[in-house]
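To fix ideas, we close by showing one paired sequence and structure record:
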Amino acid sequence: MDQDSSSTAHQERRISTGNEGLDNILGGGFDADRMYLYEGRPGTGKTTLALEFLLDGVCNGEKTLYISLSETQRELELVASRHGWDVSKVDIFELIPPETTLDRTQELTVLHPAEVDLAETTKLILDRVEEHSPQRVVIDSLSELRLLAQSSLRYRRQVLALKHFFASRACTVVLLDDMTSHENDLQLHSICHGVVLLEQLAIEYGAERRRLRVVKMRGINFRGGYHDLTIRKGGLEIYPRLVAAEHHTSFLGEFTKSGNAELDKLLGGGLERGTNVLLIGAAGVGKSSLAVTYAIAAAERGEKSAFFAFDEGRGTIEARARTLGLHLQPALDAGLILFQQIDPAELSPGEFAKIVRERVQKDGARIVVIDSLNGYLNAMPDGRFLILQMHELLTFLAQQGVLTILVMAQHGLVGPMETPLDISYLSDAVLMLRYFEYAGTVRRALSVVKKRSGEHEHTIREFKLSSHGLVLGPPLKEFSGVLSGTPTYIGGGEPLLDSDPERGA
């Protein structure tokens, strides 16, 4: 009875893949003593991920073996050294198939040596394993065995023979396949216990994008779909796809004040925690200034905000705050506003989602500003999935009790305007900012066109950005052309705000 329970526990033992992100996707790692396949084109990160698997075994005091049929030991050691790794305790077996060596005396031959080479190569692999009895083995790569086998049938039988050999030993095996064959060898998927696919995408501008997908994993409930990854010094940084349902925190849905009493009145008391607001309007109308106002008001309450700038640098944001008479620098110095410049050409959506999560869960940010969604759209290799990724991110932030402020610039300055992406249905509140003309001057108007969580004013108010911050005027009752994109004030001049020579841009 004890032997049976011990055997069951051994079969259920999980081991780390050596990569925190992949362990997270798999819910704890691999099942021990099984065979797995990493497949992907050259340059996707298979070798790096395989070395992480072996180095984790070294840290646990296990014997490890790297069988290389394509790269030399010196090449592997160079890769490891550039990641800052010490592979001296990894047994690297450099096995070059005989037919790949240069021998001038055998350039002309009648018999093809594949039959002999395959058997000899396989024997060398088995002998090395029996000699060292490793707990973790990597075979790189199957392309060489495929070439030696000459046929799909012999190749499959060879891989099956390897699987049966390792099944009798307490050993976890990772096979690497660079997918250079013209044939689609899906037969390997049925042989291996699990399959991990790595891909590299070339986009029209910016750095290449890499991603990972777990194709299958027997008996393991893994997180499906594609997960972004980057190769950095120290290994692969894998960003598990954000699933909002996995994250929930209890919070009070109280109002988050803007620091401007008239704006809070317009919003029916303010914006609630756990909601998001979309600030939409033409370029330069004041959307970012309004977002900065919320961040500074939070800092004055001692709360943290995370400000992600896709379009503008820190210097521009600081200059705008000074123009509005807002004290941004003290909040930045105190760490109450966590400002981060984002380069959409270099950052994947998965990495951005991870950064946002860290700012909220580790740093305690209660307000998140994304300025702007136009820049975030440029970070997507395929814009069709922006809505889905944004939905998960907004749901996650809502479940954390965070107020999310989204900024989106519409195309054009006056007249009918186009929105590059319709995300209004995901937004809990929408504030529309518009230019309008009166008596030969260009002015600004603000209106709340949507607010799910409660009542709000349905009026249109003029506002201006002055050295005293955001100033709202009384409702503009004689106003026309707002929805057509050409708003014009046709009433008297009394409700309009007085001109202020110190007004900011």
Summary: DSSP finds 15 helices and 24 strands in the chain.
